[in-house]
Design goal:
Length: 774
């Protein structure tokens, strides 16, 4: 199979530049070209400007600023010869067929034989793109449709033609999967492919039915949000996010390419309100506001638009009986409720799910591809066919018929069955041939969820489980809310250490939740503090210290495999692992100061040891203390696994996996390699300056307070952190043990947890999710 070692992106707009950034994130050199600007002397200004903007964009397209160095910028007149060095050339220019075809002819004249050419189009059929092009070009051409923003959205739709070489398609799948971290879904050459074909129908249906059903913006988004496993933005919040002005263009393109009998045509209405909003600059978050806005003139008042008057009013929380019914009765209770929320939910779901069911196999061969596209392209928790299973396919078919709506053939065919089932521990899906087939994973992908279907845990309690993942490796899984750490998690870690020592070679700590761990369970801590259970709190702190230390010095290798947030105690778990194999999108840090505390499960002593052992750091006792203090006192959270290496939260030797679905496989391989002749690490010792270092740190914090960059209570917390990191009452001639450092952490943590300022911070964080700046 051909290797993609260098890439070119033609078009430096939002999508083209974002694709180039993600290619660079994979460590692959990329050429970024755009047109020569009409004005100015710099002929590369557009591409250069795109890279410069991305370095300032938040959320960042680059996983690390240094990745921008892998991008070579240029223009489409002077630098097309650079394409001869590239193995994959992706076009991301304006959605104009003539412009694209003209560019393809120029590309074909300079590209090397066998190089893959693709388009990021989301609206133009592949058959039209390659019309009139040589067969040799058509054989290397595919569509690679990324979703915006390319770094964060995991879906990559790949569309091939009958002329496309299988080797080219497979090379693209492999690169998209392993290097770019995407779930690659094969789509048919139909308008909008999978995600946008269904997603655009869903959005238009939601907008039309909300306006005609008398719902408010807030009610519509509440109904279409969490009860259906859709992000809380719902539809109107989503439109504000992507840009309201984009919708008319997308609809126009879809209408022009869809057949006249497509159900989308029935949803088109006079969009006078939307036209008025766009004309007045209310295009969403990028404009003056959208369906929602913040009225800064009135004192940052959150407002929503009124569909009837077109005027803004104060935002209100949705209050519908159907929403209450959904909490206890689920999706069917929601769509069966007679109030306007229930009727709205039914109309949108009936339309969207019926539409999706009628499109297989037109847009994709299987229901699995459709569900993956909607989950990953639109951040739905459940795909359309998973939602149908929640309602019950037979129930849905009967209700569609009773409502006078068409019942799709696939829905009739599944009958009293479901679109997914588990047979002998294997997940299966219902095919268009009327039979069930195993859901297969790409080569090298092992999911914990698949292992859990076909086996029982080695050990389990209410907060964590231990699983046998084969080849002598066990996997410790947290499964609390946000994977917060509590007594049961600690108990399972200790139990796992004993089991693994006896029966396994190595341990991986991993879960498939949205986040690895949000840290300690603050609710339990606040409850204990409010009733003065100080001995119990100190016991929990000491228990955590002893548990993590036992993990660190276990007689077998421990590999952390995080994804998403790994904060506070979750970060400290990773600091005590032999190796971390992190998903690229791991956001990790010691954030305890935000709730008025300091890390006390070994975070302080581990960061000191890492910075003291850093060969690139200046020599002497103060630089490691200063770096650890800077990171912890500012609650620094690395915004990628690559960035975490800058702070030594991850070691330079720790691994990074781009595709989350491959994380467990990669971590297991690392664990097995470590198990060969494994020896636990040696215990560190600490030589710290004591009060002199603390005085220097406190002086710096006082300077920040005078500048208004630190609050009065920040000073209190920083004082305790400074005492811990400087070694307390020690001096430079003494040596502190690891246990002495843990005692310092524990003592200063307990001093802070008794403070009203700390309790106020914890309470605010639990209530609002935002830190209190007291």
């Amino acid at each position: 199979m051909a290797t993609i070692a260098k890439v070119a992106v033609l078009g430096a707009g939002v999508m083209g530049a974002g694709i180039a950034a993600q290619v660079a994130n994979s460590g692959t050199p990329v050429v970024l070209l755009d047109i020569v600007p009409k004005e100015g002397e710099n002929r590369n200004a557009i591409a250069e400007g795109a890279v410069a903007r991305m370095l300032k964009t938040d959320p960042a397209p680059f996983m690390h600023p240094k990745n921008a160095r892998l991008i070579t910028t240029g223009n489409l007149e002077d630098h097309l010869h650079l394409l001869a060095e590239c193995d994959w050339i992706v076009e991301a220019v304006v959605e104009n067929l003539d412009v694209k075809r003209d560019l393809y002819r120029k590309v074909d004249a300079v590209r090397k034989a066998g190089s893959i050419v693709s388009s990021n189009t989301s609206t133009i059929p592949l058959s039209m793109l390659i019309e009139g092009m040589p067969d040799s070009f058509a054989a290397d051409f595919i569509i690679t449709h990324f979703f915006n923003p390319p770094r964060y959205m995991r879906l990559l739709e790949v569309v091939a033609s009958p002329k496309t070489r299988p080797e080219a398609q497979e090379a693209m799948r492999r690169f998209g999967d392993v290097k770019l971290g995407k779930t690659v879904v094969d789509a048919k050459d139909t308008p909008g492919f999978i995600g946008n074909r269904i997603g655009i129908y869903w959005m238009q249906c939601a907008v039309t039915e909300a306006m005609e059903g008398g719902l408010t913006v807030e009610e519509a988004d509440a109904v279409l949000g969490r009860p259906m496993g859709i992000p809380k933005t719902g539809v109107f919040g989503l439109l504000d996010l992507v840009g309201i002005d984009l919708m008319p263009h997308v609809m126009k393109s879809m209408v022009a390419t869809l057949s006249g009998d497509d159900p989308l045509h029935t949803l088109i209405r006079d969009d006078s309100l939307v036209r008025k909003m766009i004309a007045e600059g209310y295009t969403g978050r990028k404009g003056k506001g959208g369906f929602y806005r913040v009225n800064r003139a009135a004192g940052k008042v959150k407002e929503a638009i009124d569909f009837k008057s077109g005027e803004y009013r104060r935002q209100e929380k949705a209050s519908l009986e159907s929403l209450d019914a959904a909490k206890s009765g689920g999706l069917r209770a929601l769509v069966s409720h007679p109030d306007r929320g229930g009727q709205y939910a039914w109309k949108v779901l009936a339309g969207t799910l019926g539409y999706a069911a009628a499109l297989v196999p037109e847009i994709a061969d299987t229901v699995v591809g459709v569900d993956e596209a909607m989950r990953l392209g639109y951040n739905w928790k459940f795909g359309p066919f998973e939602l149908i299973d929640k309602l019950g396919p037979a129930w849905l078919a009967e209700k569609l018929a009773a409502d006078g709506r068409p019942v799709p053939e696939l829905l009739k065919k599944v009958g009293d069955g479901t679109f997914y089932r588990i047979e002998s521990g294997q997940l299966q899906f219902f095919g268009t041939d009327g039979r069930y087939h195993d859901v297969t994973r790409p080569a090298g992908v092992v999911l914990l969820s698949d292992i859990k279907r076909r086996s029982n845990p080695v050990a389990r309690n209410g907060s964590a489980s231990l699983w046998d993942i084969g080849d002598g490796v066990a996997c410790l899984e947290f499964h609390t809310k946000m994977n917060a750490l509590d007594n049961d998690v600690m108990a399972m870690i200790r139990k796992a250490i004993g089991i693994v020592e006896r029966d396994f070679k190595a341990l991986v700590i991993h879960n498939e939740g949205s986040h690895f761990s949000a840290g300690a369970n603050l609710g339990l801590a606040l409850f204990a503090a409010n009733i003065g259970l100080w001995p119990e709190i100190e016991s929990l702190v000491q228990e955590g210290q002893e548990t993590y230390k036992a993990l660190k010095y276990a007689p077998f290798p421990v590999v952390g495999a995080p994804s998403g947030l790994a904060l506070g105690g979750g970060c400290e778990v990773l600091l005590h692992c032999d190796v971390v194999q992190a998903h690229a999108e791991t956001y990790v840090g010691l954030v305890e100061v935000g709730v008025g505390l300091i890390p006390a499960w070994g975070g302080c002593k581990e960061m000191l040891a890492r910075w003291a052992g850093n060969p690139k750091a200046p020599r002497g006792p103060m630089p490691p203390i200063a770096k650890a203090f800077e990171m912890i006192s500012t609650a620094t959270v690395a915004k990628s696994a690559a960035e975490a290496k800058d702070w030594l939260i991850l070691r330079p030797t720790d691994g990074i996996t781009m595709n989350r679905d491959r994380l467990l496989t990669d971590a297991k391989a690392v664990a097995l390699k470590l198990a060969e002749g494994y020896q636990p690490p040696a215990e560190p010792t600490y030589t710290l300056p004591g009060p002199t270092a603390k005085a220097a740190l406190n002086l710096a914090v006082d300077g920040f307070r005078k500048l208004g960059k630190a609050t009065l209570y920040d000073v209190v917390v920083a004082d305790r952190l400074a005492e811990t990191l400087s070694g307390g009452d020690t001096d430079i001639t003494a040596t502190l043990s690891e246990d002495a450092m843990l005692e310092l952490e524990r003592r200063n943590f307990m001093a802070l947890v008794r403070q009203p300022g700390t309790l106020a911070r914890i309470e605010q964080m639990l209530m609002t999710g935002k830190p209190l700046r007291n």
